[in-house]
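Re: folding output
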Amino acid sequence: QVQLVESGGGLVQAGGSLRLSCAASGSVFSINTMGWYRQAPGKQRELAATITRAGTTNYADSVKGRFTLSRDNAKNTVYLQMNSLIPEDTAVYYCNAFRSDYFRNYWGQGTQVTVSS
């Protein structure tokens, strides 16, 4: 099993910044990819950014150049630095970990990010 604990959401004005953190525990040795997905009201959950254990990142086009995802393998933690936030970034952000041995996804409880205009 893998447990994910998120922190760092909140309310910010457009143009501001927030940093989300997600710490994994449990069977962390088997985690390959970690990242963040988001779900806005009335919309499907979508990818924001992911990072492999080797550090390869993947970003949604909508966040490229504004969001930076990093990973501390020693702490089993990923950090999503979100800059130049816009109201369209408002969503519940979910941490995700992919366990390659069982081909299984794990999810955090979600953290609300609200960007006011």
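--- second protein (sequence, then structure) ---
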Amino acid sequence: QVRLVESGGGLVQAGGSLRLSCAASGTIFSLYDMGWYRQAPGEQRELVATISRGGTTNYADFVKGRFAISRDYAKKVAYLQMNRLKAEDTGVYYCKMFTTPSGSEYWGQGTQVTVSS
């Protein structure tokens, strides 16, 4: 059974940093691409960043230069380092494990990030 567990969210002041973690279990981590998404209250879920099986990264424009996605194959963990946080970064952050083009995907339960201005 595939399971993704996010952690690391919390309350931080604007300008601060957080590091989110997504621990995967129940499958072969190295076969999947990983992504972080977020959803603000009343908004649709949106892509924040992805990292491929080979380590290629991709970022939404609104986080470029501030956030960094990475993964540790040995620990089966994906990370999202978030720096220079803004109030508009507030939301629930979700981890996704997926394959392309087959379309298999798994989601974590989310972790709340609140940035106070």
